[in-house]
Structures are given as C-alpha cells and as structure tokens.
Design a protein that fits this description.
This protein is α/β, with parallel strands linked by helices. 25% of the residues lie in helices and 25% in strands. The longest helix is centred in the middle third of the chain and has 13 residues. Bound molecules: hypoxanthine. The site of hypoxanthine (HPA) has 14 residues, from β5, β10 and β11.
Length: 247
C-alpha cells in the first residue's frame, strides 16, 4: 500500500477523525503487537496511516510502549515517512505551553527499553548514524508546511527524553537545562533511533502541554492542564498535515 505519511499520536491525540475511507489493520510483527490497530484513510486523496502510541484508550505508559512493534507495523504497511506527535513539557523560554515545535536534537535519558532491532542474540549489530536524529529534509518540509499555513512552529530545540511515567523533579529539570534540553517528554526514544534503524524518514512535532517542573511557579502539573493545552495546540494540526502531504 502506498502510504504518503504515517502519524504516531501521543498523549491527547488518539484518532484522526478527518480521514476518509477508513480501514483498520491489526498488524502482528516479529517484535509483538503494536499499541493498537493502525487506521489508514484518505486525506486529500492520499493515504495516511495513524497509530495511537499509548493505545486508543491511553492504556500504555511510555516505558511500556512496544516501540519496535509500532515502527515495524508501520513499515510493514508500506510507510516510509513517520511524523511523531509527542506531548512534552517546556524548559526554555521559547517553548511555553501550547507551542508547537519541531526539535532538531535529542538527549536520551531512558533506560531498560528495547532500543534496537538488533537486541536478539544472533542479529547483526547495528550502529546507525544518529548525529541528526530527525531526518533533516523531512523537518524542513514540516517547517515549510507550517509557514504555508501561517502556523507558528518553533524551529529546532533539544528534546530530553525521560523514563517516566512520573514527572521530573525540579533538580532533574535544572540538570536537563544545563545539558542543553529545551523540551522534556517520555516517548521520543527509542522511537527515533528505531526509525533510523529501519531506514524510515522520521521527525517529531512536539506539542508543549506545560512548563516543566520548576520552570514557572504555576504549582502542580495536572493531567487536565496537559490535555487542555494539547487540545488547544493541536487545533490546526490537521491543516499542517494536509499541507505536508500536498507539498
Ligand atoms: N515532563 C515529561 N513529560 C511530559 C511533560 C513533562 O513536564 N509534560 C508532558 N509530557
């Protein structure tokens, strides 16, 4: 099947209701089951695949997502380009709540996740180049699509990926800031590395849901605040995706 774009939805983005001619695929992979069915459908006459990273009812926490199965399933279906939506907290000034960003770097603080397709004994060791974790040309196309639709998309930034599922301490965020992180989330890795291993084009559209711990004196971070800000920030997401596949 020719898939123009695969989208992996994060917290607060569980469906792409605008897709027409919807088909649902339950896909099995050598790495187990993906987080849920892959829905494919038409957007402007082009086939788009959608997978909810945490499951359609948000039943999988970040450290229990089967990232390998998710990416393998999309590849099996015929996708070559994956747009990852990641709900994140903002650390530095440019990345406040309700902003959308297209980071160009990441730092991986996760542990204990299946982070390579070469983990099984007997498989060839893979040392993929990962200097630029997001496909540069694909990032540029996303930024151009945002510009064409008049949307504000922050260009660049470093996404620090934590293990979760708890949020971070103030000291952890202060350390991440010193490390050079602008954004913090729990799902950016190993997904990006696995996509590279599979030879998929991959980029992240980060949806800023809150200020990270200690970055503003706004008290406790609640799930209600997170979901509210994701909904507001995602309002024009479909327009961006439509422009992206048109271009
Ligand atoms: N930290 C980690 N992950 C997140 C956050 C956060 O503050 N907000 C949304 N996802």
């Amino acid at each position: 099947m020719r898939i123009a774009l695969a989208v992996i939805g994060g917290t607060g983005v569980y469906r792409m209701t605008a897709l027409e001619d919807l088909e649902t695929r339950q896909i099995d992979t050598p790495y187990g089951s993906p987080s849920g069915p892959v829905r494919t459908g038409l957007l402007q006459g082009q086939r788009v695949a959608f997978l909810a990273r945490h499951g359609e009812r948000h039943s999988l926490p970040p450290h229990q997502v089967n990232y390998r199965a998710n990416l393998h399933a999309l590849k099996q279906l015929g996708a070559s380009r994956v747009l990852a939506l990641n709900t994140v907290g903002g650390i530095t000034e440019r990345f406040g709540p309700r902003k959308l960003a297209c980071p160009d770097q990441l730092i991986d603080y996760t542990w204990g996740r299946s982070s390579s397709f070469a983990e099984e004994s007997g498989s060839d060791v893979l040392h993929v180049d990962f200097a630029h974790p997001y496909t540069p040309l694909f990032r540029h196309r996303i930024l151009a699509a945002a510009k064409a639709t008049g949307m504000n998309l922050v260009d660049g930034g470093c996404y620090g990926v934590t293990q979760g599922p708890r949020l971070e301490t103030i000291a952890e965020i202060a350390r991440m800031r010193r490390d050079g992180c602008d954004l913090v989330g729990m799902t950016g890795m190993p997904e990006a590395g696995l996509a590279r291993e599979l030879g998929l084009e991959y980029a992240c559209l980060a949806i800023v849901a809150n200020w990270a711990a200690g970055c503003a004196d706004n008290g406790e971070i609640t799930m209600a605040e997170v979901l509210d800000n994701v909904a507001a920030a995602s309002a024009r997401l479909l327009e961006l995706i439509a422009e992206l596949i048109r271009g």
